[in-house]
Each structure stands twice: as structure tokens, then as C-alpha cells.
Amino acid sequence: MPLDPTKHADWEIAEAAEKTMKTVYQLGDELGLEKEELLPYGHYVAKVDYKKVLDRLKDKPDGKYIDVTAITPTPLGEGKSTSLVGLVQGLGKRGKNVIGAIRQPSGGPTMNVKGSAAGGGLAQCIPLTEFSLGLTGDINAVMNSHNLAMVACTSRIQHEFNYSDAFLEKQGLKRLNIDPRNVEMKWIMDFCAQALRNIIIGLGGKMDGFMMHSGFAIAVSSEIMAILSVANDLKDMRERMAKIVVAYDKKGNPVTTGDLDVDGAMTAWMVEALNPNLMQTLEGQPVFVHAGPFANIAIGQNSVVADRVALKLGDYICTESGFAADIGFEKFWNLKCRMSGLTPHCAVLVATIRALKCHGGAPIFPDPDCP
Amino acid sequence: MPLDPTKHADWEIAEAAEKTMKTVYQLGDELGLEKEELLPYGHYVAKVDYKKVLDRLKDKPDGKYIDVTAITPTPLGEGKSTSLVGLVQGLGKRGKNVIGAIRQPSGGPTMNVKGSAAGGGLAQCIPLTEFSLGLTGDINAVMNSHNLAMVACTSRIQHEFNYSDAFLEKQGLKRLNIDPRNVEMKWIMDFCAQALRNIIIGLGGKMDGFMMHSGFAIAVSSEIMAILSVANDLKDMRERMAKIVVAYDKKGNPVTTGDLDVDGAMTAWMVEALNPNLMQTLEGQPVFVHAGPFANIAIGQNSVVADRVALKLGDYICTESGFAADIGFEKFWNLKCRMSGLTPHCAVLVATIRALKCHGGAPIFPDPDCP
Amino acid sequence: MPLDPTKHADWEIAEAAEKTMKTVYQLGDELGLEKEELLPYGHYVAKVDYKKVLDRLKDKPDGKYIDVTAITPTPLGEGKSTSLVGLVQGLGKRGKNVIGAIRQPSGGPTMNVKGSAAGGGLAQCIPLTEFSLGLTGDINAVMNSHNLAMVACTSRIQHEFNYSDAFLEKQGLKRLNIDPRNVEMKWIMDFCAQALRNIIIGLGGKMDGFMMHSGFAIAVSSEIMAILSVANDLKDMRERMAKIVVAYDKKGNPVTTGDLDVDGAMTAWMVEALNPNLMQTLEGQPVFVHAGPFANIAIGQNSVVADRVALKLGDYICTESGFAADIGFEKFWNLKCRMSGLTPHCAVLVATIRALKCHGGAPIFPDPDCP
Amino acid sequence: MPLDPTKHADWEIAEAAEKTMKTVYQLGDELGLEKEELLPYGHYVAKVDYKKVLDRLKDKPDGKYIDVTAITPTPLGEGKSTSLVGLVQGLGKRGKNVIGAIRQPSGGPTMNVKGSAAGGGLAQCIPLTEFSLGLTGDINAVMNSHNLAMVACTSRIQHEFNYSDAFLEKQGLKRLNIDPRNVEMKWIMDFCAQALRNIIIGLGGKMDGFMMHSGFAIAVSSEIMAILSVANDLKDMRERMAKIVVAYDKKGNPVTTGDLDVDGAMTAWMVEALNPNLMQTLEGQPVFVHAGPFANIAIGQNSVVADRVALKLGDYICTESGFAADIGFEKFWNLKCRMSGLTPHCAVLVATIRALKCHGGAPIFPDPDCP
């Protein structure tokens, strides 16, 4: 029996529910997963081996594909995730075999004005701490994979400056002639590190390469996170991983991760991350949490892989397209669905009174205390 | 039956052995762990809940504490980890209840001149891929925890510049007056990103704070990794986490993570990381892998927590102090042991012919191809 | 007898003519200048003490004021200065008491695609070397005066950071609270130093102040050069010199040279520069050369002071408004004439066949060799 | 009759004396200069055409060469210039044909703790304002000449990056391969601009070249000022001007101003500056003022050219070697005299009580008000 949401904070409700939640083994059994298909990370979260599941059930027809989106929200968000979790719990209560599929939150918005992205009140995704603090490490994997490309790029510029054509050839390297003033890729970190948004790197002298403009973006905006969202499988991910444009050469031609020969190592960091993460609602329905948010600066969609696995395991699959219908649902429909070939059977549009008021011109964010 | 090391590479031997290795559940059973004490990360690696184990076995006497170190090595390393794993396997073959305790490798040295840090030949620690690629994410946790302090510091400078004393007070903040030219802490990343060693940050204008010198160090050199090594428990870690000096104020007084009120959040990122990771040797003996390397730029010791858990679970515990006796064993003896109160019963000193030659003046690294 | 312009370069014609040119003492005599009104700089260039001349001749009516401008030119320029010098020489040959008034060239365009700004062929201003290489140092004076304001600004930021309110008060200083991210003024140099256009300053540590974005502009674009152009006298210059906005404080209020208490010292550097420079045409008519070019990035007008002195000393005064009628004549008419109260009696519009072709759509700059 | 130095400031004494001082024409007559050898800059300062004088008097024997130096001084300076001017005035009063030869002050030390470098009290060099504010522009000429080398260097790096070998060859350019991380020369400015001491340049993007560490030094520390000090004539100056090391190429070989083909233009800026400047003492003896100060960071000697001219025109020549005997006289003796071939007949060593006290260990700079 959950706590009363009119008297308790979201995290209190979550914490109380976690005392009696299902283990991830039990969740796996209910989903009909084989033992080796479930990769536990502690007792309450697991990764699911997408490939084994999809191979085993390749002939089973998919469940119903339901997308939850919203009207353009206020800065506080409009309960899209809460509605999705509520929908999953409601269908579950009516005896349906239902699975949720949502995105993993970013560690970035430290000021925490928005909700936890895990839903709220009596419609949440648990365990909450794991959900909020990096889960099984997928964002960290994206970070290491992404930054490895930049290490390769800056080292290569340095290397080519120091050595002759003959020496490079002996090492099997073709001179790439990257223009240090035209490195397009930036580094990433899972924080809103404003102080790192615009930086100059390479000040350390001869051993540390060339000075150049650079910067850190928030991790979930990485092209690698987009690849995690839309890749159909490891092979597809591997191919996309080689096509990332890192910089341009002196003549303006693109230099890719493939040209830098770093795509293999980058993919190695992402192998485990491609398996979707299994959690549960407050009422015990399974939820896959995979890929990242922010459709304004990223694709911002739950992964194709998670959706595919869920469509094989459940009858009703509620997936989410964030940042409102005008950008999030657009990207769901015109990018993600085109790439996956999946088509939704139904869409749910969340609209709050507060957002409708804003649409009508009401002030969004009165903050009389701000100087 | 392992592959022949005269005909196969280390990774081939490891890969072959992984096909028949014990599951981590089997390892846990052999160690006498209760079910809730073992937190699996997939089927072949687990974290062990140190607190539950130490509470349950607090009255059991400790096993023998054996430290493995080496003479000053060559740039290639001298097989310290290999000797340690070999010693564990040898004691195991003689029927002893033995446990290894080693450090997790850094993702930094991408050029991979040194060995894998997992040992080599027939004396290795498996599964090798997990071992090499971040294991259960402890280094990532250190990275997020560390960088959070820098986000807090740079945001605070920005915040204090923008707002009046009265407004800060209303937010419960005392003006810290951090000198942007005297921020001692740097950021970290788990790569040798030379281009990031010396950087200027904060170029983005008013919203992005103040320009200042900064830089990225390699993740394992973080003070938080040192804290992970020497903390006796979560409470000890929490206390140490508040005492990290981030910067100095205008008058030259230190400003700590505690002053920035970020120590709690930093600790939250590290809670799971404090549990040591359980792996196995090629011959199936348990090995704890915990905390980071590089005694030259860090403490570079396996964790106190891992040693304590191993000392309760085994009769013979082989731990490792890297970077040779003159710095690694020194730090083991005069820092780690003083802080833990533990004393070794025996020390093993690895010495190779090659290192002895170098000590005698032979050239270290003939590289005739280098221009 | 000058050299044949179809057979000789401009500089050869100038050099030949310089062998028999008038001394500046002879020029002064012909203009009726008193001995102390003429300040020689070598034997062929002088400054004229504008104040003494204007005081002595304050009741003499002005001569005719003729402005020479041009249609929008090609990148090569369209002979505006050449036409002006030719006009002066022609009126002189007809026995008129005529004086030219032109701007001093910038040392910046080192590639020298454009002409020398001294005219060309048989219509030039001499001595040419002095004309081209800084003349009597007015641009250097602007440079020192301008950069002094930036030294004062950056020192003040540093000073206020280091000291308490009480200490500043003891020094008679009110805290200005300059925002280092909002320093609007840049430094200047009399070169197209592209590498200095965007720079970061203050990297040297505690003694060298705060890091900030900055840059060097070309000297003649300085607001001080504009003041030199439009000032009616030293008092007017002094007043304008205190009103230059250097930066903004934390609240966004402007901080001026007057607030920095540096306007007096800046004016001191400019006292001599306010006296116009006297040179001659190839045929011996007097020409005043004063203030700087580039109406696109500056006011780009010959000085009011030079025009006033010339109007008292001659019957016909040919002044120049550069960068074509659409910007240079506009600034002459709507800025310079409004500020001086002078009105021209006549305007000459230079139009070349080449410029008319470009106006009609012909290609401007065929450069087939450029890669 | 001068003002009473116990009741009046130095500048008041100077200003009063300037009302009756000799014109520079009168000074020239007394020195026996031909009309074309004297190049007036206004009525009270002139440059002297060193070449014409030395050619005319090449057979006249030199006067006596007297060097004035000092013991290691306090931060306030020890009256070396004052003693020199006093010595000149004293010898003059005794009817000797005496000439002083001192260095021009830098505009840098704006805080003005030290004296004016023009002497003090009743032993000063006038007119004082011209003396203090750039005189005839020699330092500005050094500045323009020096910075031109840096413009050439940074443009060349940019140019070589943008163009192919074939295109460079068509322009008559050999690829210099300057290493942007190894540009040794800095820019100069005649101020203590601390904020410019360490800077990063070239941030402006493709058109503005490469980012690199750079900085501004004080103008008088330029190698070109050293060349002005020691050059025997224009030809010597021209040769030295081509040998300045600006940067190093990728292989570590020096790249000079000659390699950059900028030595001719640099020399053009310095032609006039090579003529020494003529001024007078409070009592009307002639003083040459030429080249720059600061033997700690520069050669800091009056010019060889000025000394040579004075030695031809006078019987007793008092020259000055600043920054005390241990560095200034050392540089006079072992650098300047070796290069000129001149040898002094006498040296005067200034020693003050205050400096002797400091040598004995007394506190140098009590400043109780500094926080």
C-alpha cells in the first residue's frame, strides 16, 4: 500500500515502495526471460541481452506500440513521464501484459527545477536512486567512447606535426592534415558545466599539442547517444560509429572517426550499453530505461533496441517521445520510426492546464526574487 | 586446460579460459557469501557488499596479509601483477584458501606499451574485457564525483559575481570570494588527454563564468580515488569527501568541497563504488579488484575495504603495491597501513633480469626508428 | 621639370622632385606664418601651431571650402587623393592662393595593393617617405594615448580585486566594479595584425590581472583619432577625451576614461598631435596632412583644426572625404560639418571608368593565380 | 636665476627655466653644426645628422670619454642621471666644452616611483615634457619596427598553412615551417601593460591565423633598441636587423627577420631614429638623449652613435651606464665598448648614503600602509 501522495514527497513514496519491490530475477521470470538473457546489476536492475531475446523470439508477433508525447510544455515539464508510467500501471491493473520504455535521465540539470524524469506521485519508476545516478553506466560509456575520438583527433594532429611522412608511413599512417581551427567535435561530460562550454585547449607546450578552440557539451547530446537510440543492432552501431565527422582537413574535407581508426575502440566501450536496462513501476510492471533525453539538442528518444525487445516480450508497449509533439514526436516519427521501420498503433498527447495557459500567453516563470 | 603461452597471446589464453570460467554466483558460494552480500554485474563479475560481510564476520580472525611489490621497474613494467596472480594460483593449487586483491587499471595509457595489468600468460585475471574496460564503473563514479566539485566551484564564482550579498543570504549562501586565479583542483577524465592538460575555461561570455586556467588530469590521480583506497567505510569516506581543497579565496584561505556544500552529492556518486569487485584467476581463485593505479601520481594502492573483506573471507590474502618498492611499497606501508591499522605478515619483492640490467646502467628503451 | 609619368614610377617622380622642393621655412613664409607658428620636423615637414594662427587671424574671413569625394570605388581606389592634389596644383598654376588638406595614411595595409594615399603620377604630396612612414608621429601619439586607457582599465580591475574598500578609499579611489567580461575597448596598433584581432589577455597569474577577451584594432580606427578629427581645440579635445566608454561595471553602467581618471594623461600624449602637419605638392603648393583614413571603420576625415587653419591662410581650400560619397561624404556632411559649423562652397565628385564599370556589374578583382 | 630647489618641485624648476632656454638653433651654432646637420623638432629639440657630422669631422680627434655609473641602487634610484647632469653643468661653468649623453626614459613606469630620468633639482635636462613624453619618437619607431617583425611572422605561418608549395614558390617564397609553439619573439608596447605580458593570440578563426602563446614586453627591452644602442652606422644597423631570431622551425632551426624578408622594412622605420636627439641642461650645456634604459632587461646604454658625435663636437663627454656598476657598467665595458672600439678615459661612481645603508642590510621599502 503506497504512501499518500498528498502528504509525502515523490522520493518518500519511492523509498517506501522499494522495500517491497520485486527483484529483477522475479521481473525476468514474469517476462519469460531465459537465465542468460538477464544480466543483473545488483538485485533490482538488470540489462537484458537484446540479441538473445530477439533471436529467440524472432517469429513472435510484436505487441501494440503506443507513443506518449505532449503539447509544448512549460519550463517545469508537463508530466509526460508521469502519464506514461500511470498508463503502464493502469493497463497493468486491468490485467494487460504491458511494458514501459523510457529514456534515462541526464545528470546535467543539477538545479533540479524539473521533475526526476522517473514520473511522480503514485506513478514512478523504481529504484529511484539508481535511476537518477547513472543506472548501469550507459551515459558513462557514451562519455568514454565520445572523448576517445577527441583524444585520437588531438593526438593525431600532434603526431603528424612531429613526424615526417616517411615515419608516419612506417607506422601505417596516412597524413590526415587536420586543420586545428576546424575541429567540429567537442568533448562531453554528464554535467551542465557552463565553464567548460567554450575553452581553449593545448596550452601545455610541445608535448600537449596545438592550441585550439574546443568545449564540453552535455553527454546526452553526443552523436553516440543518438546512435545508441537508433541502432538496430551491434553491427549497425559499429557502422555508424565510423562515420562521425570529427574535424575537417586543410582542404575542407571531413575527417571521420573511421579515418582516425578509432571506431573499433569506441564501439568496444559501447557493447554493454547497447543492452537495455530493466526496472519496474511502483506497482511492479516492467519498464525499459535506455538512451537519453533532450530532443532539443539531441534525438532525445528511447532506444529502438529497447522498443524491439519490449514489443517481443509484451502485448502493450508504451514508449515516450520527449520535448513535446513539435520536436520530440517529430523526431520519433520522422527519424526513429523511419530508421527502425516500426510504426506506432496509438499516440497519447499529454496536455496540462498550466501549459495551455502559457500557450495562451500567461507568464511562464514569475521569479520576483531574482535581482 | 589452458592454451600454450609460448604459442598464444595473453588475450587468446584469457578468452579460451573464459569459456569455462566459474559464474560469480559459484565464486560467491565458495567464499561463503550470503545471497544479499553478492551484487552481480552480469554473470561473471560482482560487487560484494563490504558492510554486510564485515558486520557478519566481525568476530572472525583475519587471514595472513601478503604484500607483493617490486624493484624499480623498466618502462615496460616487471610482472608484479603477473607474480601476484601466479602466487594466488600456486597457493590455490596447494589447497590453500587464498584471495588476490589488486587495483583496477586506468583507461588512460591508450598506447598500451605496458601489459594489461591483469597479469599475463597463464597467470591472469578474468574476464579480461570487463577488467580492461571499466569493470563495474568505479572510475566513472570517481570522475562524476570529482567533476561535480568543479562544476560547483565554477558555478559558485559565477553566482557570487552576479548576485548581491542580500540575495545570496536569502538563498542561504555565504559569500566565499573564491579567487578565479587560484583554483587548485582540476577536472578529470579516464584518458591521457594531453590536449586537455592545460586549458583555459570560461570563454563563453557572461553565462559561462570567468576565464581561468584549468586542466584535466587522469581520473585515477583524483583525490577521490585516494579516498576510495584508504576509507575504512562509508562514514569515513563521507568525512574525507568534505575536506578536499578546491580553491583559495581572495585572502588565500582554502575553500573546500564542504564549503561548497557539494560533499554529500559527491559521496552519493561513490556509494556503490565503495563495494569491492569480485573476479577470478585463470584457475578460478577469487580476486578482488578495487581502486586505482599509479603510485607516482596517486596513492596507487588496492583499497583498504577490499583487503579487509578478503582478510575475513580467506586464509591468505595477496595484495599489491605498485610502482615499485621505493614509492609504492612506501605508500602502502606509511600511508595505507597507518590509516587501516592492518600490518602485513609477509612481503614479496619481484625482480626481473631486465630491470636489474637497467639498474646497472643498460639502455632502457632503444627505439632506433624514432626520428 | 618632373620625370615623365609614362616612364617612371610614382616614387621615382617623387624622389626626383624632392631634390628641388621648397624647405618648410620657405613654405611658412609664403603662407605668411610667424616664426613661432611654424614647428619644423626636419627641413621639409613642419607642424603649425593652430592656436597661434587662429588667434592672430581670428578676424580674417575664411577662404572657399571645397570638398573632394568620389563614387563608390573599386578595391584599388579611384584617384580621389590624386584628383585633389591635381586640383590644388591646377589652381596654384592659375595663380590662386590654394591649400590642400588631406588625411595621413595608415601603416596598416602592408600589402600595398592600394596607392600610397599621397596621390600619384604628377599629382603627389612630398616628401613621400616621411608621408608614408608616420610623418611627425601623430598616429603613434594616438596609439600611446589609447593604450594608456587600457593599461589604466586592466590595472584598475587588478587593483580593486587585491585591495579592500578601506585601502582604496585611502588612495582616493572609489570602487568601479568593472566587469572583466564586459570591457568594450580594445588595444590598438598601426598594423593589420590579424593574429592580434582576437586574443585572451591576463594569463600571467596573480600579478598580471584577470583573464579576459581582448584584441588589437588598427590604430586609425581609435575613438581618439575620431576626436583628433573633430575637436575644435585642445579644450574640446580634453572634454571628449574624458567621455570614452572603456568598459561596463557589474550592473551594466558605462565606465569612462574620466571614471578611470586617465583622461588628463591621455590628452598629454595628444597635445602636439593636435597641430596639423605642413607638406607640399610636387609643384610646391602647401598641403596640410592631419588625422586618419578609413571612413568605413572610423570617421576617416581630415581634421577640423587643419581645415580651419587652412581656411584662414588660403583663398581656396581643398579638403577630402574618403571612402566614397555614400559613407565618407556622408560623414563629412553630417558629422564633421555639424561639429565644426563649417559649410563647403563646392564639392568635387571623382568618377573613374573602372569604378563605373564595376557599378555596372563587371568583375572587380580578377586574380587567376589565387588557389 | 633658477628657482630654489628646497621650495619647488623638479617640474616647477624645469618649467621656469624653459622660459629662457636656448633655442635648438643657438645650441647648434654653439656646437659648430652646419645648418643641414641640425634637424629641428620644434624650436627646442633637434635630431643631429650623425653621418654628416662624422664625415665632416672624421679627422678631428675625439674628446675625453667619461662614464658615469653607480653602486647597486635602491628601488628609488640613486641620482646617477642627476650626478651626470650636475657634472656637465659644473664642467660647463668652469668653461669646458662639455656634452652630456644620456638615455631616453621609457613611458612604462607609470606609477612614477622613480625620478624622471632627466635628473632633478638644479641639475636637469630640458624641455622636460618633451623629454618625458616620447621626445622625437624613437621609441615609437622601435615599436613599429619590432611589431612589424611579428606581423610578418604570424602572417607567414598563416600564409604557409593556407597555400601549396607550388603557390608559395610562384610568390618567391620558400616554406619556412615555423612552429607556432616556438615563436620566441614577443610584441612590444611602451607601457608596463601587465595584462598583456602573457596572452594567447590568433583566436579569431581562419583569417586570423593560429592560436599561440605570446605576450607584450616593454618597448625599450626590444632587441631593436639594443641594436640602436650599439650600431656604428646605418649599414651596421641594417645588417644586425636581419639577424634577429623570431622563431624556430619544426626542426628547431632558428627563423630570422632576414628569413622573413622583413629586415629592410624594419630598418626603414628606424632610419630617422638613428640620429641622436639634442637637448640642453638647465644651464644650457648640450645633452644628447638617445636609446633606452633598463640594463636589467636590456642593454640599457646610451647609443654609440650619440657618443661618437659628441666625442667629435666636444672636449669632455659624459655618458651614462645605468642600473649600477654590476650590470650597467659591465654592459658598457664588455658589450658597448667592445662593439664601438671606444675606451673611456675616466669613470664616475655615484654612491648615496641610502644605498650604502641598504647594502648594509637596512630595510629597502617600508610601506606600512600596504594591506
Can I get a quick summary?
The termini of chain A are far apart.
Description:
- Four copies of one chain form a homotetramer.
- Chain A is an alpha/beta fold and 371 residues long.
- The first copy, chain A, has two domains: 23-31 and 45-107 and 275-359, Rossmann fold (3-Layer(aba) Sandwich); 138-270, Domain 2, N(10)-formyltetrahydrofolate synthetase.
- Helix content of chain A is 35%, strand content 19%.
- Chain A has helices spanning 10-18, 24-30, 50-56, 80-93, 128-132, 138-162, 165-170, 223-230, 234-241, 263-270, 304-313, 324-340, 353-359, and strands spanning 38-40, 46-48, 64-70, 98-102, 119-120, 123-126, 178-183, 187-189, 199-201, 212-214, 216-218, 245-249, 254-256, 277-281, 286-289, 316-320, 346-350.
- In chain A, the strands form four sheets. In chain A, strands 1, 2, 3, 4, 5, 6, 14, 15, 16 and 17 form a ten-stranded mixed beta sheet that branches. Chain A has a three-stranded antiparallel beta sheet with strand order 7-12-13, with helices on one face.
- In chain A, helix 6 (138-162) runs antiparallel to helix 10.
- The longest helix of chain A is centred in the middle third of the chain and has 25 residues, at 138-162.
- The N and C termini of chain A lie far apart (45 Å).
- The interface between A and D is medium-sized, with 13 and 15 residues.
